[in-house]
Design goal:
By secondary structure, this protein is of the alpha/beta class. It has one domain (about 1-184): Rossmann fold. It is built from 6 helices and 8 strands; from the N terminus they run E-H-H-E-E-H-E-H-E-E-E-H-E-H. The two termini are about 15 Å apart. InterPro entries: Isochorismatase-like_dom, Isochorismatase-like_hydrls, Isochorismatase-like_sf. It holds the Pfam family Isochorismatase. This is Cysteine hydrolase.
């Protein structure tokens, strides 16, 4: 069985002034919503992962409005919410146990950000033995400043993170391909 993991699709990750000057893929949340709706229609398992930062300055700290889920992917109908405070959706949570208790062997991962929690959770899902699919246009990244001050665009960071995960840790697909497969 296949489950959808919606990772950190939260209001705080709309704040480019905190995480970087630019963000790739402005359509990521809309694509996450399309995928979530398809999983709901098929009555396939969905898990909402919420980052609850321990840094009081972070927009994802539980005391901040940014900790809330993005309106496009609000949990409903008893969909499980897994709260975490590290990059991996599996560390310090019962996500692995919940997936295994439902005989889930395959996971589809969407959310934010590609270079942080998506990458870490994708690697862990694969290492834990789940067949892992990552949806490239249902994720996004922020720009970065390198160790010697060089600037890397959000698109470059996104594409590099996907390249590092491709084949070894996950099959990479886009939203249209996944939705077509779910319809068949």
């Amino acid at each position: 069985m296949t489950a959808l993991l919606l990772i950190d699709i939260q209001l705080g990750l709309q704040e480019t002034n905190y995480y970087g000057e630019e963000r790739s893929n402005p359509e990521a949340e809309a694509n996450c919503q399309k995928i979530l709706e398809a999983f709901r229609e098929k009555a396939l398992p969905r898990f909402h992962i919420q980052h609850c930062s321990t840094n009081p300055e972070s927009p994802l700290h539980p005391t901040k409005e940014g900790n809330a889920f993005h309106p496009s992917t609000q949990p409903k109908n008893g969909e499980p919410i897994i709260q975490k405070n590290v990059n991996s959706a599996f560390i310090g949570t019962d996500l692995e146990a919940q997936l295994k208790s439902k005989n889930i062997t395959d996971v589809v991962i969407v959310g934010l950000t590609t270079e942080h929690c998506i990458s870490t959770s994708t690697r862990m899902a694969s290492n834990l033995g789940f067949n892992t699919t990552l949806i490239s246009d249902a994720t996004a990244s922020f720009n970065k400043i390198g160790v010697t001050g060089e600037k890397y665009s959000a698109e470059l960071i996104h594409n590099t993170a996907l390249a590092n995960l491709k084949d070894e840790f996950a099959i990479i697909k886009d939203t249209a391909t996944l939705l077509k497969e779910l319809r068949n």
